[in-house]
Amino acid sequence: MDEELAYLLDVFMPVESGITRMELNKLEYCEVLGRSLWLHPAGGAVLESAGRMDHLCEQLSDHENFLRVHRSFLINLE
Question: Taking the model in full, what pTM does it have?
Answer without folding.
Answer: 0.82
